[in-house]
Amino acid sequence: MSGSVMEEWTDLAALRQVSDALADAAIAEATAAGAQGNLLLDRAVRHGVEADTPPAARALIEDAQRLDWADRERLKRGSDAYLAIGTTWLGLALGPGSLTHTYSSPSIARVLVDTANLTRMARRRLLETGSWNIATALPDGLLPGHDGYVHNLQVRLLHARVRHGLLKKGWNTEELGLPINQFDMIRTWLDFTYVPFGAFGNLGVDFTEAELADLYHLWQVAAHILGIDDAIVRAITDQRSAKRLLDAIHAEEGQPNADSRRLTAAMLDALSDLLAPGLGVSPAVARKLAAATLRRLHGGELAEQLGVGWNWTSLVLPFIAAANRFRRWRERRNPALRAATIAAAIHTHHNREEVYSGPTTYERAASQDASLGLPETQDA
Fold this sequence. Notes:
The protein is 67% helix and 0% strand. The protein is mostly helical. The longest helix is centred in the middle third of the chain and has 22 residues, at 147-168. Helix 16 crosses helix 17 (283-298) and helix 19 (317-333) packs across helix 20 (335-350).
């Protein structure tokens, strides 16, 4: 890609009025058919197209499985590179890194707050997002029928159900664009690629150029299953091209708002409770560390806009980063250590009942009638 940011992507703003036609049609079809329609759609997501799969559901599944361009060897390498980060640092980058940047978008924050309970259920949201995040990176996870594929397709349908519900409630599309539109989905995809890949480096968890290329390929496949615009995402293959796209997106959106600050504060509170036992510190100290990590990853200006001030734990982050660099150096030279870190991350996913109980919001919503209202995050 060449030229200025705005010359490369001249119609990004128009993507606010574009959603995901295939998923929206599948939800409309299932809603019109009632309980049986929702069950048939859920079954198609989990098991593939069958004789009684309705037409719109069939079109959605066939599109999601159109992965002849995906390279399984690159997916395997991308999976290893991601899971070798380790569950603790995946969690830290997820909240202060990925979700913070997501919440800084006023339009995305508005959608999340309008789903009613995402501030109150911040802890559960963190855990569920972490589960989806690891499922995406499982070995062969994005192949049809496997956990990553199923979870991403369920998230795609959750988005369509939320769109259906918000539009039914009178969402102002002229002012706000469609809820969970392509502009916002592409931005969120960067929140789980460009943002954490750079964040990990600030925490001492670095990648080679080859690893980054494989990581982007892994997340391009996830984006396709999620219904994100292939034409844009598949052109993003490294941090440089991702930064250009994110710069163009930032030029089209406003500053963080009150919703952004509410979501960020709730996320930091929830993350501190989750991190404190493993770190051997009090929740208050864990929150300071999470806030300091946020400032290190995003800079003081955005942190201040989100209501996150400086605190003394910022002074220890360079030492933590140095310790991570040493750990990564050892693991690159000792395959057994690296394999153990990967195995621990896989164990976390397959034994998630040790962390939280019951199905995730997107799993529950998979067979939920969209006419019943917006899907809600809730503890089991």
